[in-house]
Every structure is written in C-alpha cells, then in structure tokens.
Amino acid sequence: MQRVGFIGLGIMGLPMAGRLAKDGIPLCVWNRTPRHSEDFPAGTDVALSASSRAVLRGSRTCILMLLDQDAVDAVLERQTDAFIENVQGRTIIAMGSVAPGYSMALAKDIAAAGGNYLEAPVSGSRTPAQNGHLVCLLGGEPAVAKAAAPLLRPMCKDQIYCGSAGDALCMKLAINLYLCSSLVALAEATNFARLAGLPLDKFSSAVMAGPMSSDFVAIKLPKMIKTDFALQAGLADAHTSTCLIQAEAQRLGAATPQLDTSSELYLQALRLLGPGVDMSSVIEAIARR
Predict the structure, then answer these.
(1) Which of 33, 98, 173, 267 could be a cystine partner for 69, CB 3.0 to 4.6 Å?
(2) β-pairing, 91-94 with 61-64?
(3) What's the mean pLDDT in 121-134?
(4) What is the pLDDT of residue 25?
(5) pTM over the 0.85 mark
(6) Nearest residue to 237 (alpha-carbon basis) of 81, 93, 122
(7) Which of left, alpha, beta for 163 (phi over 0: left; psi -120 to 50: alpha)?
C-alpha cells in the first residue's frame, strides 16, 4: 500500500493521523514542531519526514490539517515554482477550517496545476478525533470525494457530501455558528446556576436529562463546573471560527447577533487566559463581567 501524506500534527491532527495508522494505513508525516515515533500507536507504519515538500512529493494523496490558510499556502508553496510539482497528479485533502472563498480559489489553482482537491473540514474536538467519531463535510468533485471515502472512514463516523469546493466549509461555518453560540449560552447558564447557589452536580444532571443533552454538552459542562480548561477544542480556534463566520455572514448579508456577542466573549477570555486553554473557558469572561 502506498504511503499517505499527513501534514499538521497538532491538537486534532495527531489523533487523526493516529487513527489512520492504527487502521493499517502507512503514513508519511510532517509537522512544523517535530514529532517523534513515540507519538504514534506502537507497531504502526509511520515515516517521519524532514519537510512538507518531501511528504507531498512522496505521496499520491496528502491530508492537510493546518491552522489557517497562510499555513496551507506555505506548505503547498503556493505562488512559487514548486507549487505545480507539489500538487500535480496528487489529491490534496484539506481538513482544516478556512474561508470558503479561499478554498474555492485553491481548488482552481490545484486543478490548473493538474491535481485534485477535496475540502473535508470536520466537526468535533480532540476526544472525538481520538475515538474516530468526527463528522466530515466534503466539498469538491463527487468522484474525488467517493475515492477518498475509505481513507477518511477511520477518522470519521459520518461523511456528508455538501457540493462543490466552498460548500463544505460554508456548512462548517453554519454548524460552528450554532456550536460557538450555544457554548456561550451553556456557560452563561452555568454561571447563573453557580451564583444562585444551586448544586452544580444537580444542575448538570438536569441539563443532561432534558432536551439539551448531547455529547458536546456532556464534555463541556463538567469542564465549566470544575473550571478544568485543559485543551480539547481551543479557545483561540473558537474565536478564529467566529471571525470566519462573521466575514462570511457579512458577505451573505446574514444577521448574527448572538454570534457577534459570543465572538466578543471569546476574545475577552483570550485576553484573560491566553490561547492555550479550552473554549469552555469562555465562562471566565462571563463570570468577570
């Protein structure tokens, strides 16, 4: 079996790559901050590469799980003479969250260079990534999405084809609008319950017994109650996501009053606590108002 490239081994990328490796897929990987063989499950076939270029040129399919579009451009060496050789005859699967318009332009550039492109942003945080329970949204040529499905399966419990390049990312933004705003509402309710002197274990039981119960709430509510802000889904990523949503909403002419308030609160929490904490820490911004 030919090696699959994987570039970007951060909070999400590392467990995702680990799922592929455990499924018996040989990988060639690279991360800006070097990783080690011990970071991957024992007995798996993972080759650590010295450069992103070597990963791209040594694989026919390469997954990118990168922070933002600047990182994607840097890895692909876009706008340089190396770009064509990096993508020609290859399938690039971009699983990070970037602006839909950027993804559409990248798809055109990769196609013009003779490559295939699939946007495949995921919904879920580190725990679902570790368990292979992410939801993958696909945007691109149907044949490319169909061919990629077996490779994505170890990482994702569901794959939803959304349409052309840009459509999957727009879908991700719509989902994140709901997620980011609802987390702020959960934080506000938890802060209210605490100030009211309610037993927070009973509050948690009542929430989980009612219509708002979900896997997401089951992960985030205990973190708020215990003020355990160890990173799962990053606060900085949540704020970045709200900014992407706001930009796309402005383009669409869509009102986002709750999201706008949520974005301000994520930014306040960032200023209070810094970037290395979980998005559930937004409760601190609410508590200090």
Answers:
(1) 98
(2) parallel
(3) 92
(4) 97
(5) yes
(6) 122
(7) left
For residue 104, what are the contacts with CB-CB under 8 A and spacing of at least 6? 164, 165, 166
Angle, to 10 degrees, between the axis of helix 235-252 and the axis of helix 257-273? 150
Phi (first) and psi of residue 234, to 5 degrees = -70, 145
| Per-residue pLDDT, 245 | 98
Which pLDDT tens digit goes with each residue over 131-175?
999 999 999 999 999 999 999 999 999 999 999 999 999 999 999
227 φψ region: left (φ > 0), alpha (ψ -120 to 50), beta (else)? left
Return d(Cα 186, Cα 207) in angstroms, integer. 10
Largest CA distance in the chain: 64
How many CB atoms sit inside 10 A of residue 140's CB?
29
Looking up tokens 């971009």 gives 94
**C-alpha closest to that of 52 among 89, 9, 14:** 9
Instruction: Please give the structure tokens belonging to residue 216.
Output: 């997401």
Residue pair 76/107 in contact by the 8 Å Cβ criterion = no
